[in-house]
Amino acid sequence: MISLDMLHIGTVPLTLFAGLLGLLFGSFLNVCVVRWPALESVVKPRSRCPQCGNLIAWYDNFPVISWVVLGTKCRHCKLPIPALYPLVELAVGLLWALAAWHYGPTVEFLRAAVFGTLLIGIAMTDAREYIIPDEFSIGGTVIGIAFAFVGGALLWPQALIGAVVGFVLLWVVAWLGAKMFGQEAMGGGDIKMMAMIGAFLGWQGVLLTLFLGALLGTIIFLPMKLMGREKLVPFGIFLAIGSAACWLVGPALIKWYSSAFLGG
Ligand SMILES: [Zn+2]
User: Fold this and answer.
1) Alpha helix ranges (H) inside the chain
2) Cis omega before residue 45 (within 30°)?
3) 148: pLDDT strictly greater than 80
4) What is the distance between the alpha carbons of residues 87 and 33, in angstroms, rounded to a whole number?
5) Cβ(122)–Cβ(115) below 8 Å
6) How far apart, in whole angstroms, are the C-alpha atoms of residue 32 and residue 27?
7) Which of 78, 155, 225, 252 has its CA 20 to 30 A from that of 40?
8) From ligand 1's centre to the CA of 49, what distance in Å?
9) Given a cut of 70, is residue 153 above it in pLDDT?
């Protein structure tokens, strides 16, 4: 297994560096989340205020800090900048710092940080527009498999099988759902997202994620449906939460299950 150990970085400097890097990735994620569903480039044009259209200068574009310095308002039109932007930056920064702290200078740190960033991106686009951009799902599948080849904890056969199982299983579930309920319960975005999750968590992770996601989705959406407030279900959010839980407690859960019920 390749290790970043040879760089001789202490845990504290690595955590700080990862946190700063995470803030920048969070800032970039905000751009991706708005532009990818609209099929726009994330490189050009430069960032503009969504309200007045003025270009955002580089000195007004620091993660979190600029939002505080500017008094949470745009420099030009003085309209408020939604708190969601700095919150996403903070969340991704924290995620990267925690992953660095927990895993140290290893490939597993990068794998955890990238996976979490992808999940946050997917949850946001699915919540806003019921869209899971291919950049997150298909791009994420490729990245997940690539990690397996450079020394991630998941070996490459596991990553490949995970991706295939995720895709095929969700495709079957979506097909059955459409047959039984006569309407599309799950979209292609969910199917491709599940391939990504399989590439990061393997086939066991796919099953556990699907179980946790369906459980969570039922608990939250069934009451809404019964109250007649039926809406399109952004199932990707529940899959994102389910797979994050699976990363954190999945191995322990599978071990407990097999010793409690399978005698293994
Ligand atoms: Zn403005």
Assistant:
1) 11-35, 65-69, 84-103, 107-129, 134-149, 156-181, 188-226, 235-261
2) yes
3) yes
4) 14
5) no
6) 9
7) 78
8) 5
9) yes
Cβ atoms of residues 178 and 139 within 8 Å: no
As a whole number of angstroms, the distance between CA 236 and CA 194 comes to: 9
67 Cα–ligand 1 center, Å: 13
Q: Nearest to residue 31, comparing CAs of 88, 69, 94?
A: 88
- 159: helix, strand or coil: helix
- Section 56-76 average pLDDT: 92
| Alpha-carbon gap, residue 140 to 132, rounded angstroms | 11
Beta-bridged to residue 106, according to DSSP, are 3
Give the pLDDT score at 97.
Answer: 98
Is residue 229 predicted with pLDDT exceeding 70? no
Q: Which CA distances in Å does 91 have to 25, 29, 36?
A: 10, 11, 20
**85 closest CA partner among 24, 30, 25, 19:** 30
Q: How much is the pLDDT for 252?
A: 83
**Which amino acid is present at 224?**
M
Residue 56 CA to ligand 1 center (angstroms) comes to: 9
CA 238 to chain centre: 11
How many angstroms is it from 254 CA to the middle of ligand 1? 50
Confidence at residue 122, expressed as pLDDT on a 0 to 100 scale: 97
Q: In this structure, what token pair is assigned to residue 94? A: 């924290």
Q: What pLDDT shows up at residue 1?
A: 47
Q: How confident is the model at residue 233 (pLDDT cuts 50, 70, 90)?
A: confident
Average pLDDT over residues 126-149: 95
Whether omega before 234 lies within 30 degrees of 0, making that bond cis, reads: no
Expressed in angstroms and rounded, the spacing between residue 79 Cα and the centre of ligand 1 is 6
